[in-house]
Every structure is written in C-alpha cells, then in structure tokens.
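Fill in residues.
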C-alpha cells in the first residue's frame, strides 16, 4: 500500500485547452515523463502517453474496453450524445459480428476498383490547384478530394454533402468532454444529424457503392436493417475528417520541409511512406479513450476498475523511447508500428481506403508540382480529438 501512496501520478494538464491543442507536443512530453500512466484531476480520468503502454493497452481489449464509449463520456454513467457506434463503441462478441460485416465490404481486393476513379480525381484536383498557383490547401485539396471520392465510393448522391464535415466535427469533438468546443460544433445538429441518418438508409444509397454492400449482410441474415444503417453511419462518421486532416498535415509537412519535398519529387513512389510518416508525425486522431474492465496494476501504480483512460496515440507516435528523432519529418523512415490507425481488434477498418486516398493524391502532387511552400500563416483547426488545419495557404509551381 505504501508503495501505491508514494506515487503521485496527478498531472495538472488539460489536453482540451486551446493552448494545448495549438501545440500538444510539449504536453505529450510531460505526460510521458509522468510515468506509465497519469491521473488528470481536472477530468477525473487517466492517461497513457508512452508507446510502451499505449500499444499494449490497445491490444488488450479485455482490460481496456470500448463498450462504455471511446470518448470521455462513460456510457455506464451518462447517456451518449448519439446512439453508440456498433463498431467503435462495442466489445466482442457484438464487435466481432459487426466488424465481420464491414470487413467483408472493405476487403482489399474488393476496393481495388476504387483506384482508378480515385487516381483520376487526384490528378484533376492537383491540376486545378496548379492552375491557380496560390490556393487554400485545406479547401482545395485536403477537403475537396476526399469529399468527392469517398461519398462517391459509399454511394451517396451529390446533394447535401456539405453536411459531412460538420457531422464529423461533432463526432470527433464528442470523443472529448462535452465542452464548449463540442457544444459549438453541435449548433447545426438539428439539420446535420437527420441528414446523415437519412443517407444511411438503403433507399438513399447507390446500388454499386460500399453502403449498398453493407446491406447485403441483411439478406445474408448477418445484420438487421437497423444495424446496417448504423454501420453505414460509421463510414460517414469516420471516413472524412480523418483523411482530410491527414492530407492537410501531409501538405503542411511537405511545404515546410523542402529537403524532404526534393526527395519526394525525385521518387514519387515514396508517396505511401510520406503518408505513413504524416500519420506518425501528426496523427489525425490524436487520442481516444478506453474504460478499464478490472483494476490494473502498472509498475506499482493502480488504476481502478471502470475508469476512463485516455490513450494518446499521437504521443506514442513521437515517443523518443521508441522512435529516433521523433520530431523530424523523415519520408524514408521505417514507420511500421505507428499507432495512428490504432492496433488490435479496433484497428482502423477504413485504412485501405485512407491509404489509397493519401497515396494517390500525394503521387499526383509529386508528379505535377515542382515546388510547394506556405503562402501565409496556416490556421489550426480546433477539435477535441482530430489534429488538422482549418486553412493552409499554399503556393505551388507546375513541374
Ligand atoms: C463510428 C466512428 C466514428 C468516428 C471514428 C471512428 C475512429 C468510428 O461511428 O463508428 O473510428
């Protein structure tokens, strides 16, 4: 007992503070040096920020459960702001069943038919901005490209797609405490949420898209019609903000690291690795929670049962105990093992689509752009879980 009391894992840090979000990396360093886990009195929850603990916690779904929500809200104590996701906010055995339904739809060979339309749109998007010279990298590339190809792939019609990003903003703010930032993003919920739900119905989805593929599980007796709609909702929740943030961060890192840009230009086949290194450096989903299903002992430190634990993926991805020069953007780095997509039972189910988008857009960029630089100060997007830009003024010169 004395050993437990000796430890003072309290950390007076607020990962949802504006200043923290503007530059979270010094905060992550403090969190990592606090120990294997730390306690945040302000939120009465725990955190883990080192690679050494974050990765095993992600893999140990029995101890670190998702069924009580992967946001700050503890579903056993408070009502979730929206009906829980059947994928994200579930544990086995339910998770195994729903995951199987979606796994079949995103089976990599089945997604290869997306490559050609994605590549065509990537080229068109890059050619548009090259013609402009100066443009907003967020609006014109990071948003425009995923907002075209992903809803097309799911099978949404073109009307109302402007609801997708505001919905994502609510969903990812909803990973944090339901603070002023969350509340501001839900100001449009009364129009955005019903639009999203309507688009999840079988009738709203093109017969050749990923959404319609999900509904085949109903015919096969593997899911109910209502469950299928909720699984389509997962596509519309998780599939855009993440790729938008990743592409925006990749553009920023390339524009501000001219040496790496030159390497990339010389070898556009590095596109895949540029994207992975971006996910490590500027992890689109910075953090998410688990809930302990039993008391945990970590290096003499005790976390009680039913406690929320914030897993700082972005910090693990910059942990100097695991990575050499973690703060250096190195497009030839061996970046395998980053936890930007998570790992284990809940590892990102859309990763093949996300990687395809990243690879194809960055390839088109390396092939058609000779130089890329900032044309003004980038403006950060503030969200409780997603790290990206609101605006990224860029200047490009045609190759
Ligand atoms: C979902 C969902 C929403 C946001 C993120 C996510 C990281 C999943 O609704 O299933 O995965």
């Amino acid at each position: 007992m004395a050993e437990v009391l000796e430890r003072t894992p309290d950390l007076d840090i607020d990962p949802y503070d504006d200043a923290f979000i503007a530059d979270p990396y010094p905060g992550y360093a403090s969190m990592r040096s606090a120990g294997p886990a730390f306690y945040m009195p302000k939120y009465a929850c725990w955190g883990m920020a080192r690679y050494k603990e974050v990765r095993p916690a992600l893999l140990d779904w029995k101890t670190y459960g998702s069924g009580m929500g992967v946001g700050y809200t503890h579903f056993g104590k408070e009502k979730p702001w929206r009906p829980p996701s059947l994928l994200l906010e579930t544990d086995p055995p339910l998770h195994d069943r729903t995951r199987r339904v979606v796994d079949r739809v995103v089976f990599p060979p089945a997604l290869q038919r997306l490559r050609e339309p994605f590549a065509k749109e990537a080229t068109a998007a890059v050619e548009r901005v090259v013609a402009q010279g100066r443009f907003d990298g967020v609006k014109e590339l990071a948003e425009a490209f995923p907002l075209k190809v992903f809803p097309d792939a799911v099978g949404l019609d073109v009307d109302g797609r402007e609801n997708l990003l505001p919905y994502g903003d609510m969903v990812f703010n909803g990973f944090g405490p339901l603070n002023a930032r969350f509340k501001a993003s839900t100001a449009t919920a009364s129009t955005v949420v019903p639009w999203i739900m309507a688009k999840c119905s079988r009738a709203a989805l093109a017969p050749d898209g990923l959404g319609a593929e999900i509904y085949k599980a109903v015919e096969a007796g593997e899911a109910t019609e209502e469950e299928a709609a909720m699984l389509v909702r997962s596509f519309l929740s998780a599939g855009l903000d993440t790729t938008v943030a990743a592409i925006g961060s990749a553009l920023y890192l390339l524009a501000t690291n001219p040496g790496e840009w030159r390497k990339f230009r010389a070898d556009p086949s590095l596109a895949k690795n540029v994207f992975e290194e971006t996910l490590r450096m500027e992890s689109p989903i910075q953090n998410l929670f688990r809930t302990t299903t039993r008391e945990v002992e970590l290096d003499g430190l005790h976390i009680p049962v039913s406690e929320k634990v914030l897993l700082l993926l972005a910090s693990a991805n910059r942990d100097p105990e695991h990575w050499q020069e973690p703060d250096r953007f190195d497009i030839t780095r061996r970046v395998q093992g980053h936890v930007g997509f998570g790992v284990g039972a809940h590892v990102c189910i859309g990763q093949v689509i996300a990687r395809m988008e990243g690879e194809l857009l960055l390839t088109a960029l390396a092939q058609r752009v000779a130089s890329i630089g900032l044309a003004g100060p980038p403006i950060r997007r503030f969200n409780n879980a997603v790290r990206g830009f609101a605006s990224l003024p860029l200047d490009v010169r045609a190759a």
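The chain has a mean pLDDT of 97.
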